[in-house]
Amino acid sequence: MTLVEGKTGVIVLDVLASTECAAAALGFYRTHRGHRSVQAVIYSHSHYDHFGGAQGVLSTAAGDQREIPIIAPAGFMEAVLKENIVAGPAMRRRAVFMFGGSLPIGPHAHVYISLHQARSVAASSGTTIIVPPNDTINETGDKRIIDGVRIAFQMVPETEAPCEINVFFPHQRALYIAECATHTMHNVITLRGAQVRDAKKWSKHLDETLDMYGFDSDVVFSGHHWPTWGHDNIIKFISDQRDLYGYMHDQTVRLMNKGMTGIEIAEQLQLPPALKQEWYTGEFYGCLSQNVKGIYQRYMTWFDGNPANIWKHPPKEEGKRYVDCMGGVEVVIAKAKEFADRGDLRFAATLLDHIVAAEPSNERGQQQLASVYQRLGFSAENAVWRNFYLTAAQELGSESQGAPQSVVAINPQSTVEDWLDALSLQIDGPKACEISVQTIVIIIPDEQTTWTLTLRNGTLTYRSKAFETAQSSGSADLTVTVSKSEMYDMVAKGNIDAAKKTGEGKMETLITLLELGNII
């Protein structure tokens, strides 16, 4: 969190992940600088650790909280609300591995994650609240004057987040570069799961940053890590970060077009010596190997072009066959130990993974694989790799292995369409296929819309129309009239009291739908 002092108060730039943390940080500031009221809040991008603590600073703002400017880039709320709807449960499962959330703290377990010391995807165990922005930055060059402070904005979408802005304070000659440039290589693709980021656009945006603001800045700072001071240092820092993402992208594509696969490119590609020697390009959070594979995936999908990989067996069945071909479990375990003793931990892990996939209850295989994962984790400079290896070692043999949370999060501030998107992702398709076509019409007066939901072939589809254009609902199995808040209670909590009061038709149709969606 950064506080920019104005004539009478402060502008808060990125408000941490939780109400409690933000309030504590603001209190710490006031202890040393005196009480200054919050004049504005700026969100640089759509990740929780940059906006989740807004209530902690807005609760002490002068005057009506609703009148305080809350500034964010265009598309902010859409990016926030859709970030984890589709793959949220699977991502949360992966995040436990990536951030080492289940590991004890210590030299043989969780140390850090490079960007910060947090051990969860939200970066805090406190209360996270989304306070929507009321002022949108739509294009590079947009300006504001808040409490006497002049501010210029640069749109940098599809860099580290789907929507993001850099913030320049010309009178202070200070550039806030969000997460476009940090003191580590960042993620073009993240192991917790997300769409692959555009490394080429990332590089181009940084070049624009350098051209527009770099030469007029005395300090560059970001949402993580320490500032960079001094004209020459700033120019080199931004230039090197620009070259870092540009080189990764361009050389991956060059080798890809020569016929190499993502894995082959990742094994061969090295950074230029001038970049590799800098601390701020180190592979502490992001990693060259996985970023190269992500860039390849962005253009060429998961498939490496080898027909043998089009229709492979799933891990358990493949593992059984490999173990059988190699002479049985005991032979494979012995061979894995030989490779591990020779220092080839990568292939030892591959062999033992086949055993654990084929025979999940094989304790010797689990123990030996856990040992190999520990050695890989202890030798990893990259914090994310370390956490993944050590969490996997910890979890081998535990009953929770491989079980993601199953319910997709439904946010009360999302749109009705977002809620129905989330519900559709939870429908048990095979069970739903056993049911004949069902149609439900939901009228939402305060939204001035009528929604038609159809369950057919195990698939939930839905469309909305305005009141005046909506067709008659006479053919529907059920028609209900509810407010938007009652609609949320229905699809998020399974509360159908309001629907029962207004429902015309077969109420069991709605109950069945919510059961199929694991809501009730």
From TrEMBL:
Database matches in SUPFAM superfamilies = Metallo-hydrolase/oxidoreductase (SSF56281), SCP-like (SSF55718)
Q: Which residues form the Metallo-beta-lactamase domain?
A: 1-224
Alphabetically list the UniProt keywords: Hydrolase, Metal-binding, Zinc
* UniProt cross-references to Pfam families, sorted A to Z: Alkyl_sulf_C, Alkyl_sulf_dimr, Lactamase_B
| Source domain of life | Eukaryota
Q: Offer one example of a GO biological process linked to this entry.
A: dodecyl sulfate metabolic process
Similarity comment: family membership: Belongs to the metallo-beta-lactamase superfamily. Type III sulfatase family.
Q: Which PANTHER family match?
A: ALKYL/ARYL-SULFATASE, ALKYL_ARYL-SULFATASE BDS1
**Name listed for the protein in its UniProt record:** Alkyl/aryl-sulfatase BDS1
Q: Which organism is it from?
A: Lachnellula arida
